[in-house]
Design a protein that fits this description.
5 helices; alpha+beta
């Protein structure tokens, strides 16, 4: 597990571990089918659908999933991918060092103020641990204003709207310099 740095002191430790598609599927199923995860587009997924989706990711050399833990308890999901090979092929001109990212915070009845921002900060810090990563690319739904605000808070700059098969998305980029300037976390 890799501890993250630069998080608010009251957040507690956030760590990441490889996702186990079979052992973690039931947990993920509850997350991705929850109404708060509508933008994850798996509302009607069965447990088998979730297992299959994450087994495909586990077998894909260009797409990866990690389970995020808060104080040792599963609390968020992180996916990262090569946008030249997955998700954004043909929709923009990838640059060397680009990496795509998705994250999902588990639904909770007791939200912690600032937690989602701490999660996206931890996810970004983890991506920038790789010296080859120069820029993070995201493509959230254009109507997901909450995630646009979070993205901006960690340094993302929107470039333009794009049309993907499943949604109209806001293509946005964050360099390690913009991330460090926005968050104070060395990248």
């Amino acid at each position: 597990m890799t501890p993250t740095t630069g998080l608010p002191a009251d957040t507690g430790p956030l760590t990441l571990r490889p996702l186990d598609p079979l052992k973690d599927a039931e947990l993920l199923h509850g997350w991705v089918t929850h109404p708060k995860a509508a933008y994850w587009m798996m509302q009607d997924a069965t447990l088998v659908d979730v297992e299959r989706a994450y087994m495909e990711i586990a077998a894909d050399e260009h797409h990866h999933a990690l389970l995020g833990l808060h104080r040792g308890v599963p609390a968020f999901l992180m996916e990262y991918y090569d946008p030249a090979q997955r998700e954004l092929v043909g929709l923009y001109e990838p640059q060397p060092g680009d990496i795509g990212m998705h994250f999902l915070v588990a639904p909770t009845d007791r939200p912690v103020h600032g937690f989602t921002r701490a999660v996206i900060t931890a996810v970004m810090a983890r991506l920038f641990e790789d010296p080859e990563v120069r820029r993070v690319v995201v493509e959230p739904d254009v109507s997901n204003t909450a995630v646009h605000a979070l993205n901006e808070a960690v340094g993302f700059v929107p470039e333009r709207e794009i049309v993907k098969p499943e949604k109209k998305a806001l293509l946005s980029f964050c360099t390690r310099e913009r991330f460090a300037a926005a968050t104070g976390v060395a990248a």
